[in-house]
Amino acid sequence: MLAESHWRTQTRTFPCPPHSGEKMDNTGYCSESFNSLQSGTSDEDMVEIAGATLDFSSTDDVPPLDRDYSSGGSYGVGDGPNGVPKLMDLLDEPVPGVGTYEDFNTIDWVREKSKDRDRHREIATKSKESAWALLKSISDAFSGWLLMLLVGLMSGALAGGIDISAHWMTDLKEGVCLNGFWFNHEHCCWNSNETTFQERDKCPNWKSWAELIVGTNDGPFAYIMNYLMYVCWALLFSFLAVSLVRAFAPYACGSGIPEIKTILSGFIIRGYLGKWTLMIKTITLVLAVSSGLSLGKEGPLVHVACCCGNILCHLFTKYRKNEAKRREVLSAAAAVGVSVAFGAPIGGVLFSLEEVSYYFPLKTLWRSFFAALVAAFTLRSINPFGNSRLVLFYVEFHSPWHLLELIPFVLLGIFGGIWGAFFIRANIAWCRRRKTTRLGHYPVLEVLVVTAVTALLAFPNSYTRMSTSELISELFNDCGLLDSSQLCNYANVSVTKSSSDSLPDRPAGQDVYTAMWQLSLALVFKMLITVVTFGMKVPSGLFIPSMAVGAIAGRLLGVGMEQLAYYHHDWVIFRGWCSPGADCITPGLYAMVGATACLGGVTRMTVSLVVIMFELTGGLEYIVPLMAATMTSKWVADALGREGIYEAHIRLNGYPFLEPKEEFSHKTLAMDVMRPRRSDPPLSVITQDGMSVEEVESLIAETSYSGFPVVVSHESQRLVGFVQRRDLVISIENARQRQEGVVSASRIFFTEYTPPQPPNSPPPLKLRGIMDLSPFTVTDHTAMDIVVDIFRKLGLRQCLVTHNGRLLGIITKKDILKHMAQMANRDPDSILFN
């Protein structure tokens, strides 16, 4: 669970100004001080995240070091016997910064949960003493629910604004409303009395750019003008998006879900969930979607909701000061993101549980449900699409499905699995090329070229010109008597009015065949262009493009099945359930099943995906087809490659994430993985009572480890505890400032009682308070599969290896990840921000 700094890790504590291209494990360190900790990292300090060069100097999502923290050390003040200063227990006066974490480090889940339990006990004890303390106790218990309410309201409001803005700016590429430029096409024509049934989108108030510029919308010149304006608007929107991301918030690029998963596992990436990221991601998400690129807003909405949750955590002390508690809020926020993206509160909770969360206690489940409910209610109140629905492609089907239709549904599942595996391999290969070649040096140019190609190829085809959400809505649609879509232009046959709303199967007209060709071209276009679009330096979600690919394939198969049933209803497979004049096949249902299969193949979601899709359709009747397609796509995709798209991007970017779904099947032991190895220098340790301040500072300066075991002596190597490098540096610096007489020769003690000191010796430092007295240990013959389980389930930063009580070495999460990479014949040096 914890992305470590192993000792041999980079902790990035106080790096010297790095050289260009400097990697994380730089071992050159300047003289370290508490002031340097407070001042943040160098502005030049860059690292590759999600394929972008990012500045980690922002500290938006980590509490400042000058706040009050509840753990500390002990430092001498005042005079005692023999002229030796007496020692004051600084647990009564906490040291700012002790107990906090460096950037790109992992939280200590055990310590954070222990701190929270201590806080609970203190509140419970005090609540019995006075009415005011009881009131504070009730307020503390209620604060979690209040925070969930605020996260739901804020995320729902932002999602509504994003939906409305994206709809308007997408229509702006094609024309403008004369009644008010702020109206989109649909709203502009709502009150017009001059629209016809066949051309309901045409009204005098809405003018295309050709009508405004050349006075007519007919002829080749008008077509070229509309074409040119469409491409120009698309290029403008994408240029603004990539420029804003690059200039103000590099973290705002991509979908954000791989990074959210890594953060929820305990890793710290400062600024990734900060206010600048939230602001820029919200604006650029609208621009990127409106540009017509093959991307969606659903994945980035999870990032937006998590930013809201992180920012609002700072209003409540117990969440601001405890990283583990904050991650419970972020898990709930991820559920909120999916809730507002798809209008699926239950699906959102299951998505957070199944796909992104690492630690998900029962109370987080309840609070996630409440926050998702509030967010969906807020979005419904805003009503961004004007149809009282939370999504653009909500649909209801009326015809039941037949058992024999499971065969084409399973075929769609196979297609979804093959497409998912192909997409992951192709996209990862392209992203790796972007990271390792000069292509990655020109993010703005790449976005503009992809946008230009997308716009030039998309405009001639009406199904690629429209927004992807509108395309999915059109493909999901069940044709009725009032539909004027090309897809519903069947040959006229005598229709007897039945009690249901459905129409019988009819022969396809010329427009339907034309639509089939256009959809076939759109399918190839979407499959190829999405590969190069996902991962660019703009906010880009993958849910909608994946669903579009599957929906097109499903609609094509559905229309084919419908025509087969109409012309060959006497075949054995149709006989008995598909008589002439009956509504046997629903092409829209096939589109929905195909969309589910492709999204499942790419993300490897199962339960949450099925729930999201049936919440979209409002019908439980189609759960079995959805389940069949989802399971088939997952089996096929897993057979071709074990990783989903998010896990693949986590590995590509070298994030220290220990995948809980991955089995460790190798027969190695702890001694095979621990450091130091036989060829390495001896283990760097601190003795409990034999080292001076100068010796400890020298050890810190010469190494880049994130912490040090504390032993009885160098000879015995009997383990006493473990002390974090950051806490040690801050405590020594703090003691120098606050205690007169502390010099380099002062002794440092980690013992419970300080032995008598010579009369003229400098005052000692007692740092037992910052030492972990119960570090996790395993013996050298412990099987590595057990060690991996311990790291996953307890969220350790490191684990010490002993033999008969004698310290032998240390294992960190990075060691485990490197070992697993070696066992899988991958480059072990790719771990941690490659």
Automatic annotation (TrEMBL):
Pfam families attached here?
CBS, Voltage_CLC
Instruction: List keywords of the entry alphabetically.
Output: CBS domain, Chloride, Endosome, Ion transport, Membrane, Transmembrane, Transmembrane helix, Transport
Query: What membrane topology does the annotation report for this chain?
Result: Multi-pass membrane protein
Give a yes or no for keyword Ribosomal protein in this entry: no
> What name is this protein filed under?
Chloride channel protein
- Residue ranges of domain CBS in the record: 674-740, 771-828
Enumerate the SUPFAM superfamilies for this protein: CBS-domain pair, Clc chloride channel
Q: Describe the family membership recorded for this protein in Swiss-Prot or TrEMBL.
A: Belongs to the chloride channel (TC 2.A.49) family.
- Annotated transmembrane regions: 142-162, 227-252, 273-295, 301-317, 329-353, 403-428, 440-459, 515-536, 542-561
Organism of origin: Cirrhinus molitorella (mud carp)
